[in-house]
Structures are given as structure tokens and as C-alpha cells.
């Protein structure tokens, strides 16, 4: 029974986490045990467990009154996050280029990126999902479990930042990712690290530009 509840708690956490990352649950949204238990067709226990995990991983926090709410990421937070990501992910890209691993996965992602550029415009959800997949793959190729965990946590927080109002980065982002993939596939650690640096710097600059020129 305990194992079933744990599994249900994990799946409930994943569902709520996905809703936060895709913007369905906006920052400040109250996480009511009863509301989500009713809407998801589960008891309050897995909801309570999931909310506790969301809080421990930074996706939610408790308000002054103790009510759990979806966390918010400020501009200063995202600037710091992108700085730390650059330090970690440039090193991950360098290690990935030296690993000689995951050639088929990289090739598959490359084909999807080319499809985004050449075919019908993808949904923001599909674009975000592929973006996450590539960054997490590069982290795994680096061969460090801790590095993977840190990058995944910071990448998730990036996705939480001001959903729906970030500047359109589809075309430049795809081209930057292609340069990164090509450098890794070529086994060029310096070029891979440089490509990742360019990508994350451009994300940062796009956010700053959008703040000063929102329209």
C-alpha cells in the first residue's frame, strides 16, 4: 500500500510540475489539496506529498499565511540562474564533446530542429520540450550525476520565469542549438563550450532587451 501511495505521489508531483512549467499554473496560484484532489481524482495524501516535493524543489513556496503557492522567479533570479547555468553548461558541453556518446540522440534532435526551421512553426510546448531534451542530453553526456541534477533544476527554474512573455527565440535558438550539436558531434570541446556560451548569453540579452522594449 505504501509503495502504491508513493508511486501515486510521484505521478501527482510530475503532473503538477508539468502544469507549472507549461504555465497552466501561474506564479502565485494557491495549491489547494482539496481542489487538486477533486480535479485529479486522487485522495489528499498524494496531493500533500506532491506539494511538499514541489516546495522542496523550489517550484512552490508557502505564503505568509502558510498556504502553498506556485513560486515566482524574479528578473534578478533569472539573471543569476543564467550566469550559473553558463558556468555549468559550458563545462557540460565541453565534456559532452569529449565523450563520444549519444550520437543517434543528437542526430534525432538535430533533425527535429531543422524541421522546426524548414517546416510548419512548432507549438511553444513542442519547442520547449525539445529545448529541454537537448540541454538535459548534453548534461547526461558529461557523465556527472550531480551536474545533471543541478542543470535540470536550473533549467526548470528558467522555464518558470514569466511564461508567455519571453521574446520569440525560435529561429535564433534553433540555430544556436544546431551549432552546439555540430560542435559536440565533431568532438570539438572548445567549440561546444563556445556554442553553449553564445546560446545562454543570447537568452540573457533577449530577456534584458524585452524588459526595456516589451513591444
From TrEMBL:
Keywords of this entry: DNA-binding, Transcription, Transcription regulation
InterPro entries, alphabetized: GntR_C (IPR011711), TF_FadR/GntR_C (IPR008920), Tscrpt_reg_HTH_GntR (IPR000524), WH-like_DNA-bd_sf (IPR036388), WH_DNA-bd_sf (IPR036390)
SUPFAM superfamilies: GntR ligand-binding domain-like (SSF48008), Winged helix' DNA-binding domain (SSF46785)
Coiled-coil intervals, chain numbering: none
One GO molecular-function entry: DNA-binding transcription factor activity
Residues annotated as domain HTH gntR-type: 6-73
Keyword Transmembrane: no
PANTHER family given in the database record: TRANSCRIPTIONAL REGULATOR, GNTR FAMILY, UXU OPERON TRANSCRIPTIONAL REGULATOR
Protein name: FCD domain-containing protein
Organism, as annotated: Parasedimentitalea huanghaiensis
Amino acid at each position: 500500500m505504501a509503495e502504491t501511495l508513493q508511486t501515486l505521489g510521484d505521478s501527482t508531483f510530475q503532473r503538477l510540475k508539468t502544469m507549472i512549467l507549461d504555465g497552466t499554473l501561474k506564479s502565485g496560484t494557491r495549491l489547494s489539496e482539496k481542489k487538486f484532489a477533486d480535479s485529479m481524482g486522487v485522495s489528499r495524501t498524494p496531493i500533500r506529498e506532491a506539494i511538499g516535493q514541489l516546495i522542496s524543489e523550489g517550484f512552490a513556496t508557502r505564503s505568509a499565511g502558510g498556504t502553498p503557492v506556485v513560486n515566482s522567479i524574479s528578473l534578478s533570479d533569472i539573471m543569476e540562474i543564467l550566469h550559473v547555468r553558463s558556468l555549468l553548461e559550458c563545462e557540460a558541453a565541453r565534456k559532452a564533446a569529449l565523450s563520444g556518446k549519444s550520437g543517434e540522440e543528437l542526430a534525432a534532435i538535430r533533425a527535429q530542429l531543422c524541421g522546426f526551421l524548414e517546416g510548419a512553426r512548432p507549438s511553444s510546448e513542442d519547442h520547449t520540450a525539445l529545448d529541454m531534451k537537448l540541454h538535459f542530453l548534453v548534461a547526461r553526456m558529461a557523465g556527472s550525476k550531480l551536474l545533471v541534477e543541478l542543470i535540470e533544476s536550473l533549467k526548470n527554474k528558467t522555464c518558470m520565469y514569466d511564461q508567455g512573455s519571453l521574446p520569440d527565440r525560435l529561429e535564433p535558438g534553433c540555430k544556436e542549438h544546431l551549432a552546439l550539436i555540430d560542435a559536440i558531434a565533431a568532438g570539438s570541446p572548445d567549440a561546444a563550450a563556445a556554442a553553449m556560451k553564445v546560446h545562454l548569453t543570447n537568452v540573457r540579452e533577449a530577456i534584458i532587451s524585452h524588459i526595456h522594449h516589451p513591444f
